[in-house]
Amino acid sequence: MANNEESRGLKSLFDWFANRRKSGSTSLERQEREIADGLWHKCSKCSVLAYTKDLKANQMVCVECGHHNRVDSDERIRQLIDNNTWKPLDEHLRPTDPLEFRDRKLYSDRLRETQDKIGLIDAVRTGLGQINSLPIALGVMDFRFMGGSMGSVVGERLTRMIEQATQRRYPVVIICTSGGARMQEGMLSLMQMAKISAALQRHKDARLLYIPVLTNPTTGGVTASFAMLGDIILAEPKATIGFAGRRVIEQTLREKLPENFQTAEDLLQHGFVDDIVPRTQLKNTLTQLIALHQPVLTTPHMVLWETMSLTSTAAE
Q1: Helices (H) and strands (E) in the chain, counts
Q2: Is residue 47 domain-shared with residue 185, that is, in the same domain?
Q3: Are 181 and 192 in contact (CB under 8 A)?
């Protein structure tokens, strides 16, 4: 009888320790999750943990390996445009479903779900602003909206922005990130390539500057049109840039492509981009390029002073 009571006591004591250990580990896991959520970021390239606040201060570029994490359009605008100078354009334009397209779900339903999820109407935001006090027309594509695909609204917004820039004599900068034309809009999507390109030609005829910035990824119809029509073409490090996908090309050519194929570094080597600029240096680089291409207005006094200076130098 005593042995049974003693065994029951030991068993209950073991159960108590087991329950305490289990509840302790559960609370520890919960505490770790509460601490970790949103505070730390693990780099997808080098796996180094970084404090999210420090990562954002470095414009979402890993301080260890230099990996450029994808950022949304809001963050891009904050990184490039001076405070209180951003004026959005054509936010009222909304995509429709003229073809009544359906794949796994209706295109109209897909649009509505994406809009509700990320809070954007379509895959590009356009506007006017200042970059280090210099006026600029800026278009920023957002990969979160159906892979940054180029539909009718994307083409219309970019075209209207370029026309505004031409009228105001502003330089144009477009941050490109896209999977290409939006298949749910068929030929209407492909027409945007010609429409944007025509607006850029009129901008060029006015002797104004256009700089596309190619980020990861920039592919398809965007690469085949306005992404490659810049006066100066910039790219972010390691960005994937191309037209068709790597697998499609390998299957067509029946050859293994190099590891760095369709990277910004490969395109720079072959002359398709003019420079690779880290995100942390992009604002200053754009400022310098825009300042160098600003029209210089000379007054008669300036011309007279220059003439006198040249004459006095020649006399000496």
Answers
A1: 11, 9
A2: no
A3: yes
